[in-house]
Write a structure and sequence with these properties.
The protein has about 350 residues and is of the alpha/beta class. Strands 6, 7, 8, 9, 10, 11, 12, 13 and 14 form a 9-stranded parallel β-sheet that branches. A 5-stranded mixed β-sheet has the order 1-2-5-4-3. Strand 9, helix 7 and strand 10 form a beta-alpha-beta unit. Helix 6 crosses helix 7 and helix 9 packs across helix 10. About 5% of the residues have low confidence.
């Protein structure tokens, strides 16, 4: 019975050999893992400085700004960095770039992940290496409105040529109104109706044929507003010309609001009186509404208009947005041209509809 003995011998020998192989493989795996951990640690403590400089260099190139809030300390060996981005796309692009750049080191324990909505971390193994606090740049919005468009064609065209998102308020009843509304739209400006409304001082109403007065019957209010939108179909909204009495009349403003809501048009309260109820009534009726913050050209000098434009920026910085109203005057045009020729990186000049669209 020689063959069973031989079979048993080869079986035992095979099991022993397989055990040796498994032991060797396990030892090699354990040694590799220990070596990998040691190599990761060496990289972190040795060439980690150069890699950290590379990371910070890439952050500087691909963001608006950054600030190191905390350098590595013995008790917490990680960087804390605040990074400011232009927008979410720029933020996502940077971290996709960093992940691709550092991908060759991933086998050695380097990896990254987002933490919540506003943070991103790079890790060596389980140890945090970089903690990025992400911020999007705050942009302050300014809407510049030029009222009283409809008298002088040449002056209006000068404002239409300004390289900015300009809002132009056009008289619906003047002969040049419809033409200038078309020209404004062709020039990439936003059009709204500049509607004459009754002032407290009767002398201010004497020359107005097309005027919305306190006490006007509902049918006449609707007819006048419909006529205005028919003549200026480009209009996305409406603001008041004068109107210190009309805008104090809750009934009249509520009637206006009904028509504006039907047309999905916004209302800008020129705020010719601090007692105006127009903004409140419009909002309560479901009409998107804004109020004027700054009048630009109460004095007819370029220097004054420039100071008022700076005031508008200050208001925007304080409340997040500002509405500035000017008029088609030569000094206003010259001041705007000079003002817009300078960079204003923290500010965005917008259409009123954009400001309202963002909840302004």
């Amino acid at each position: 019975m020689l063959w069973p003995r031989r079979f048993l011998f080869f079986l035992l020998f095979g099991l022993l050999a397989w055990g040796v192989v498994l032991f060797a493989l396990g030892l090699e795996t354990r040694l590799f893992e220990e070596g990998q951990a040691a190599l990761s640690w060496a990289l972190f403590r040795g060439v980690g400085r150069e890699l950290a400089l590379l990371v910070l260099h890439e952050v500087r190139k691909n963001s608006l700004s950054f600030q190191v809030l905390r350098y590595p300390l013995p008790e917490r060996p990680s960087f804390e960095v605040e990074v400011v981005f232009e927008n979410a796309w720029q933020r996502d692009r940077l971290f996709r770039h960093l992940e691709a750049l550092l991908a060759p080191l991933r086998p050695f324990g380097l990896w990254g992940k987002g933490v919540g909505d506003d943070d991103y971390c790079l890790f060596w193994g389980e140890e945090e290496w970089f903690h990025f606090r992400l911020r999007l740049r705050q942009i302050f919005r300014v809407a510049i409105v030029i009222d009283d468009i409809g008298y002088a064609v040449a002056m209006a065209e000068k404002f239409f040529s300004l390289p900015v998102k300009l809002n132009v308020a056009v008289f619906p009843h003047l002969p040049h109104g419809p033409y200038l509304a078309r020209r404004a739209e062709e020039s990439g400006k936003e059009v709204l109706i500049h509607f004459p409304m009754e002032a407290v001082d009767p002398r201010e109403n004497s020359g107005e044929r097309f005027l919305l007065r306190s006490g006007t019957p509902k049918e006449e209010v609707v007819r006048m507003l419909e006529e205005a939108f028919r003549r200026i179909p480009q209009a996305k909204g409406l603001n008041n010309h004068k109107g210190s009495r009309a805008t104090q009349d809750e009934r009249l403003m509520a009637l206006c609001a009904l028509v504006l809501r039907e047309k999905n048009a916004y209302f800008l309260d020129s705020l010719t009186t601090p007692r105006s109820v127009a903004f409140r009534v419009m909002r309560n009726t479901g009409v998107r509404a804004l109020r004027r913050d700054v009048f630009l050209d109460g004095e007819t000098t370029v220097e004054y208009v420039l100071r008022q434009l700076e005031t508008a920026l200050a208001v925007a910085r304080k409340q997040g947005f500002a509405v500035a109203i000017g008029h088609p005057k030569e000094v206003t045009y010259e001041a705007l041209k000079r003002f817009l020729g300078r960079p204003h990186p923290e500010y965005e000049f917008v259409f009123l509809s954009e400001m309202l669209g963002s909840g302004g």
